[in-house]
Design a protein that fits this description.
61% of the residues lie in helices and 6% in strands. It contains 14 helices and 3 strands. The longest helix has 37 residues.
Length: 358
């Protein structure tokens, strides 16, 4: 009898989970295999030419890189040649990246990064500079937003995890940005960041009694990405606060009572009682924030469009722009596959670093 009930329970469980598995298969697994297959072709959204198999050409075009060391030019007597400003003169990059049979592997590449190494100049070349910039911007966004957002959310959760009159009002206020559409939030913050008469510039000018010079936050390559980071942290911190709060409420009150009897300080209570009890919640928060950060698109599309000077390009924005904006389905599919592999790798690393140790 018990075995029969167990079998019925298993069937009921699988029946409940089947719609979820179906949605995952339709919206995640199948699109990935389609993208994986298209990444090896030259498929375009609207093209009279038949689709051809190109192998790894799309991946080479996106990820192709090279390093070139340029030595300063010298005259016939061996003396260094300098320009009008006194800087050392170096050969033109085009001499190496345009039709030079001795540097065929660098053909078509452009300068991405460069720095001086003694008298020489080291130049990092890339076949697709915009995509490499998008990778760096995305990783920078993840590395900054994930820890800052998690820490702020934990701080808010600790503040509102108290039995005080009106505490629910503060919980609602902190959570309100989450329920507002990210497009609406992005439009609102675009007005706040306006370089001419934006709210942020007006506040900073008033606080400094007019000494602060207005900044075009979204029009300056040095401030555009940090401005989007700040807005993204503010918008989603309430969601992660709720997850932290749920984790805090699973910790047994007897542990806090025992810590109080032992005379521990607040820091000691947090270190030896609260934080160990939040370990699983911390892992969840870290993974969720990382996944959301890698999916950065709406803020970029509404606020900057990838500019200025490609300073806010991201991987997802590049995938959408190429796949639909430029109708390059194979290029967008290739970027999607690379993003999947990147996220999977980082997730496995996070899982390894946060595993339970005996």
């Amino acid at each position: 009898m018990s075995r029969s009930r167990l079998t019925q329970s298993n069937r009921a469980g699988w029946a409940m989970a089947l719609p979820g598995f179906g949605l995952i298969a339709v919206f995640i697994i199948l699109p990935f295999f389609f993208a994986f297959g298209l990444s090896f072709t030259n498929q375009r959204l609207i093209s009279p030419n038949p689709t051809e198999w190109v192998g790894l050409d799309n991946y080479r075009q996106l990820m192709g890189m090279g390093v070139l060391t340029l030595e300063p030019e010298r005259d016939d007597e061996g003396a260094l040649i300098r320009d009008e400003d006194g800087a050392l003169a170096y050969p033109r990059l085009r001499n190496f990246t345009r039709g030079n049979p001795d540097y065929a592997h660098l053909d078509g590449m452009r300068e991405w990064l460069s720095w001086s190494w003694g008298e020489n100049q080291v130049v990092v070349l890339a076949r697709d500079v915009v995509f490499m910039t998008a990778i760096v911007n995305t990783l920078t966004f993840v590395l900054v937003v994930a820890p800052v957002q998690a820490a702020l959310a934990l701080g808010l959760a600790l503040l509102i995890n108290q039995r005080l009159r009106g505490i629910n009002i503060f919980r609602t206020i902190y959570f309100m940005p989450v329920v507002v559409s990210i497009v609406v939030v992005s439009l609102l913050w675009r007005f706040i960041y306006d370089g001419n008469d934006g709210l942020l510039n007006n506040i900073l000018s008033a606080v400094t009694f007019g000494a602060f010079e207005p900044v075009d936050w979204l029009g300056n390559p040095d401030t555009a990405l940090p401005a989007i980071m700040a807005m993204s942290i503010w918008q989603a911190v309430g969601f992660h606060m709720v997850i932290w709060l749920a984790g805090l409420q699973t910790i047994s009150p007897t542990l806090y009572e025992a810590a109080e009897i032992e005379g521990t300080s607040r820091w000691q209570t947090f270190r030896y009682v609260t934080w160990p009890g939040l370990r699983n919640t911390a892992v969840l928060i870290l993974i969720v924030i990382t996944m959301q950060a890698f999916a950065l698109f709406a803020q970029i599309d509404v606020m900057t469009g990838g500019g200025p000077l490609d300073s806010t390009q991201t991987i997802v924005f590049q995938a959408v722009e190429r796949g639909y904006g430029k109708q390059d389905i194979s290029g967008g599919s290739t970027i999607s596959v690379l993003l999947f592999l990147l996220v999977l790798t980082i997730s496995l690393i996070q899982r390894y670093l946060t595993r339970e140790r005996n």
